[in-house]
Amino acid sequence: MRDFSARLATPEEIADWDSRVQANPNGGNVLQSAAYAEVKSHHGWNPVYVVFTCADYTSYNLVIEKKVALLGSLWYLIKGPDAAAAEDVPAMARALGRFAKESGRRVFALKVEPDIVDGEDVRKLFREAGLVKTFNLQPNDSTALLDTTPDTEQILKNISSRARNAVRRAIREEADVRRVEPTEENMRAMYKLMSHIEDRSSARMRSYEYYRRFWSNFTAAGQGRFYFAFEDGEPSVGAFVIAYGKKGTYKDGGSKPRRKQYGDSHLVQWTALTELKEDFGIEEYDFCGTPPSSELKNKEHPHHGLGLFKTSFSKTVTDFAGCWDLVLDPLRYRIWNTIGERVTRQIYWRRHHQPFY
């Protein structure tokens, strides 16, 4: 088993953050990016830039810190740590715990969320290492991933016949699908399209200001793009996608109900992923959220329809290990786990009308 140390990144490393994250063993994650760290800094979280080192590799990871009255700090390695192997995750977490204690920080727990594929062997490994399973937070802890390394024609052949026929029909019928600029008008149109999805689900949307900052940060970094389908001159389907390293991500989407153009949403995705492949050389496209593989056929699941759409491009669902806690102070963690977290989330929602995480 590898032995890790943890330290804070230097100013020079932070200035070059994205290139360092993208050189991690798994190529980094968009939620570990500089653009995302800046977003969270405006919404109650303090970015902490952490470097893990062992004899074999170095991994750069974003930690977001939430200070909790009376209890101290919760550290959340959002979509991290980026580890070369599952057995490295507990070792990295313990190294960060040691660093927090030795540097005099009142951290009562670390929340880890690695992009390690789930399985009983992984769960057993994490439990035996002292990690505590908790509820998952990110929509793509279960997701559809499309391999974009083949040429475009082969990718089209690899997706399901339903998706392939929808793309071809939309092209044949000259559906109006195009990339659009990140203007205020287009961002407000995107948010409006997303609200239609909320009408049909139990989701709580974040504020427009949150999304505006998120979209603006990623487009300014040259990583984010908007794609719209138009019907009768108005946006009818929208997608915000990101290229980060070799990975593309369908981050946000929305559509009007009862549209006339068949295949428009499939053509939006096809246009986005093929252009990200052409312009950035992405090797994988994450459709960012489906029901877990065990729930994919459950018609009562709130994301059943989205799951059907996304798995029409990639036939299987990948389940990641999700969220696990490393307890650093048992008493404070027990208070947090029994009442503190629930109360804190309720108060935060009442004050800000935003999800806590």
UniProtKB/TrEMBL annotation:
It holds the Pfam family FemAB. Residues 161-289 form the BioF2-like acetyltransferase domain. It comes from Arthrobacter caoxuetaonis. This is Peptidoglycan bridge formation glycyltransferase FemA/FemB family protein. InterPro entries: Acyl_CoA_acyltransferase, BioF2-like_GNAT_dom, FEMABX, PG_Glycine_Bridge_Synth. PROSITE patterns: FEMABX. GO terms for molecular function: aminoacyltransferase activity. Belongs to the FemABX family. Keywords: Acyltransferase, Cell shape, Cell wall biogenesis/degradation, Peptidoglycan synthesis, Transferase. GO terms for biological process: cell wall organization; peptidoglycan biosynthetic process; regulation of cell shape.
